[in-house]
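Lecture 7 notes: from sequence to structure.

We start with a single chain of 228 residues. Read the sequence below before looking at the structure.
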Amino acid sequence: MADESDRHSKADSAAVINDPDELAKAEALNALRQFDMVSQMIDAHLQPDRPFNLRPSMIMSLHRIALEGINSFAGIYRPAGIEIGGSKHTPPNAHLVPSFVEEMCDYVNQQWSERSALHLAAYVMWRLNWIHPFSDGNRRTSRLISYLVLCLRLGYRLPGTNTIPAQIAENKKPYYEALELADLAAAEGRIDLYKLEELLGDYLSVQLVGIYKNARGENCVGQAEKLH
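Now the structure, written as tokens:
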């Protein structure tokens, strides 16, 4: 399996910021803006008059925010081939990207009532990484699109601050391993998202248990003890 520090996109650089410290600041700010946009999308599509359909434009808009001011390809599909370091999977050629993204959106929309929330969230997370439609920012965008699908399929915005995307960001190794297993199944002509669905279910449990602990005041007690 790929090591969490190795699985990254290898593409021709289109970076706007080269200073590591400035880049880290810009990425952190954009991550907050990206999550805010996802929250707004969730709230908007929970309205009765705004039924949800996953569209490529949503994905491109979220990606644009992730790389705005950082990469000249923000919100634009990659113009050439790409490799994923630490992975055996080779993403499709650039000219195939738009059709694969459309196909992914069609799958989610057509299976919306037939499949579970965890399956659809796992599918989007894996498939967007499998396509790797952008030169950078694929993982960040896939995690938030997955969260968007999960919340809207459930019918409400999940409470809590220890969100699934935040938990993945803290330790990416299990996430990468689950993606690799799904990639191997796809290479054999199968869709097998068992491990990724299981992982997302575990993350969801942690997020919701955190709410329960806050309600009981357990987190407050723990924080108070740390102060003494």
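The longest helix spans residues 20-45. Keep this in mind for problem set 3.
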